[in-house]
Amino acid sequence: MWLCLLWALQSVASQSSDVTVIVDGKKIDFPDAPAFIDENGRTQIPIRFVGEALGAKVGWDGLI
Question: Quick one: which of 2, 10, 33, 61 is 20 to 30 A from 20 by CA?
Fold first, then answer.
């Protein structure tokens, strides 16, 4: 599944600067920061929302 997601992101990056992420047929919204393609052509996405869409429990531990 991860390989498919990464391939999809790479395909989107090579076609357009507008990045759309779809997991299990649902578009993922990024309310905090938009997904974008950096100056090196790498697609950057906030991983929290993708992780949650995949069923992961995501949290923050500020004690590090």
Answer: 61
